[in-house]
Amino acid sequence: TQADILSSAVNLKNLGYTAAIVPVKPSSAARISADELSWAADACETANLRFVAYLSCFRDDVASRADPALAVCDSEGELFIDYEYSAWLNPYEEAARDAVLENCRFAVSGGADELCFPYEGNLSVIDYGDREESPHDVIGAFAQLLRETFSVYLGAVISGDDMFGEGASEVKGQDVAVFTESFDRVWGYAADA
């Protein structure tokens, strides 16, 4: 409820927090309603907290299963399902990129001060097919489009493996260079340090 959201924001402020991370579009659910977004924005403003909208980017089980033509496949041509049983949108598909942009517009128009995207998962078994552009280039171009489109802070949460280890690769499109070029903040998990 609206009162619960306000109470949570005030509690965060009383504990010394300066920002509230609000799950606007989780990977396994539809995005929050316009009312919930408004309540979160009002609560953050009342409590003097930065409103960080947490948006699953291409990891979107709802949209991928609703329109499998927008989803990525594995090397056997089947719908790619990650370790949490979530399907992913294909960043090569314009309609998939537009869906992510629409979620971002929704969050920003509702008062978000920052957009934060989790980039995680074992993507090495995704098969994008034969493409002229590498996943690295496609993800990099999309990150740059986000930068050009939105004037709010942009953040990414990526695993240590994706930043520095075996997961960082041209094939997956996930490496620290892609994110540090276009995002204001890049977070890694403390367990990965």
What percentage of amino acids are in beta strands? 15-25%
Q: What is the string of SSEs from the N terminus onward?
A: HEHEHEHEEHEHHE
Task: Name the overall outline.
Answer: globular
Give the total of beta strands: 7
Radius of gyration: 17 Å
Q: Helical residue percent?
A: 25-40%
| Strand arrangement across the biggest beta sheet | 1-2-4-6-7
Structural class: alpha/beta
Query: In whole angstroms, how far apart are the ends?
Result: 38 Å
Element layout with pairings:
Layout: H1 2-14, E1 19-25, H2 34-47, E2 50-55, H3 61-66, E3 73-74, H4 94-109, E4 114-119, E5 126-127, H5 135-149, E6 153-158, H6 160-164, H7 176-182, E7 185-188
Parallel strand pairs: 1-2, 2-4, 4-6, 6-7
Antiparallel strand pairs: 3-5
Can you offer a commentary on this structure?
The protein is of the alpha/beta class and 193 residues long. The strands form two sheets. It has a five-stranded parallel β-sheet. 39% of the residues lie in helices and 17% in strands. It is globular, with a radius of gyration of 17 Å. The chain contains seven helices and seven strands. β1 (19-25), α2 and β2 (50-55) form a beta-alpha-beta unit.
What does this entry show, briefly?
The protein is an alpha/beta fold and 193 residues long. The protein is built from seven helices and seven strands.
